[in-house]
Design a protein that fits this description.
Pfam families: gag_pre-integrs, rve, SH3_retrovirus. By secondary structure, the chain is an alpha+beta fold. The chain contains twelve helices and 15 strands. The longest helix has 23 residues.
């Protein structure tokens, strides 16, 4: 304290000074509340400005605001950190992205996916409108059963469960399905509860959570459409096609199995029955014994295999029924050749449509009309004469363009009339005989000859072509 001045020091640094007045010391300088408080106030002002611009710009997102702030277009906005905005949630709420769920199952039947497809507008020959599928998560093996009604799911599930558990010696632990009434009925839930099967359901209107079964159904239907189209069969054969498609999928490599087939993962042994696979719908001739003079075979179509029977399932078009036989001769080459022939026909059509008609370089000669008018001229180059000639100018609305293609003998023949002016104009423009130029509506005098125009527009067109009055 010196001369009535109080000094507060920290080491060699004078922190503050105070002058004595009436037994009180008054601070010399300004009061600093604190850096934290100043920063907090600045942050609050910046947040308010950001919120203001956010609402001004129709509740724009942070990324858009940051781009405008970097360009210095938003006055007073510095930080673009938006706080919670209820209006943005109400107006922009979307569904949460679905991640790839992986079930780390350790063995077969630990986790089973199931789904019901239908109803189909087209009933099968057996009267089915639905099918239910069961997919083993570990091996991705699939079982498909067709149904007439959805309430048959429980009966089919019990039959499939007993068969599959007896053959594999394992129990179903978890069953995943959607919220369909066939899966959430009291009898179905009671069966699962009595058997100790854990149930997993999807959220309402969220089929992505049952993605394995849904994707398998899509794969099945893709194969069905391809096979029916290839065989030329109607939609009434969808049940036979989907049963055979499931048989094929179990013998195709699956990405979830790292390239192994579902049958190989299920049984632990490679599948070796590919030699019995045939083209769906291919012609087949099965052995019959009728009278001594009748043919020994009838023609049918291959539909797949019958469960538990060493024979082929065939469709006989003449008798309109399915038959099972082991004495069958197949003609797969007929379908292969048919597809090859169809491909050649399509290629021929494509080649023929791509051929251009060779045109003779002749002038475009319009037909004379009674009224004489002034119109643009067309210049051309003649191969035989070096001199340039000018086509006569006639009325535009009576022009008739002639096409001169070559006939089979190589001679030039002249059609009576050629109506496709676009097909004619394209090769002529490429040759450079005609210059294609866009003309504005106001500068086109041909309007009065091609469409009704007003009197004012009519006089304007006359002025363009240099006609003062009409007699």
């Amino acid at each position: 304290m010196e001369g009535g001045v109080l000094k507060a020091v920290y080491g060699a640094l004078v922190v503050m000074k105070g002058t004595r007045r009436n037994n009180l010391y008054f601070l010399q300088g300004s009061t600093v509340i604190g850096g934290a408080a100043v920063t907090e106030a600045a942050d609050a002002n910046s947040t308010d400005t950001t919120r203001l611009w956010h609402m001004r710009l129709g509740h724009a997102g942070e990324k858009a605001l940051q781009g405008l702030v970097k360009q210095g277009l938003l006055k007073g906005a510095k930080a673009c950190k938006l706080e919670f905005c209820e209006h943005c949630v109400l107006g922009k709420q979307t569904r949460v992205k679905f991640g790839t769920a992986i079930h780390h199952t350790k063995g077969i039947l630990d986790y089973v996916h199931t789904d019901v497809w239908g109803p189909s507008k087209n009933a099968s020959w057996g009267g089915s409108h639905y099918f239910v599928s069961f997919v083993d998560d570990f091996s991705r093996r699939i079982w498909v059963y067709t149904m007439k009604r959805k309430d048959e799911v429980l009966k089919i599930f019990l039959k499939w469960k007993k068969m599959i558990e007896t053959q594999s010696g394992r129990k179903i632990k978890t069953l995943r399905s959607d919220n369909g009434g066939e899966y959430k009925s009291d009898p179905f839930l009671k069966v699962c509860q009595d058997e100790g099967i854990v149930r997993h359901f999807t959220v309402r209107e969220t089929p992505q959570q049952n993605g394995v079964a849904e994707r398998m159904n899509r794969t099945l239907l893709e194969k069905v459409r391809c096979m029916l189209s290839n065989a030329g069969l109607g939609k009434a054969f969808w049940a036979e096609a989907i049963t055979y498609a499931s048989h094929l999928i179990n013998r195709l490599p699956a990405a979830a199995n790292e390239g192994k087939t579902p049958m190989e993962v299920w049984s632990g042994k490679p599948c070796t029955d590919y030699k019995y696979l045939l083209i769906f719908g291919c012609p087949a001739y099965y052995h019959v014994r009728e009278s001594k003079l009748d043919p020994r075979a009838k023609k049918a179509l291959f539909m797949g295999f019958s469960t538990g029977v060493k024979g082929y399932r065939l469709w006989c078009p003449d008798e309109k029924k399915f038959v099972v036989s082991r004495d069958v001769t197949f003609d797969e080459a007929a379908m292969v050749n048919q597809n090859k022939h169809e491909g050649e026909i399509e290629a021929t059509k494509t080649m023929s449509s791509s051929k251009q008609v060779e045109l003779l370089k002749t002038p475009v000669v319009p037909v004379r009309s009674d009224t004489t008018d002034t119109s643009p001229t067309v210049d051309y180059d003649d191969e035989d004469n070096d001199d340039e000639e000018e086509a006569p100018t006639q009325s535009l609305h009576n022009n008739k363009i002639l096409l001169q293609p070559e006939d089979r003998e190589g001679k030039i023949r002249k059609p009576a009339r050629f109506t496709d002016i676009v097909a004619y104009a394209l090769p002529v423009i490429e040759e450079g005989d005609i210059l294609l130029q866009k003309i504005g509506t106001a500068d086109n005098p041909a309007d009065m000859l091609t469409k009704p125009v007003s009197l004012l527009k009519f006089k304007h067109c006359l002025d363009l072509i240099g006609i003062c009055k009409i007699c």
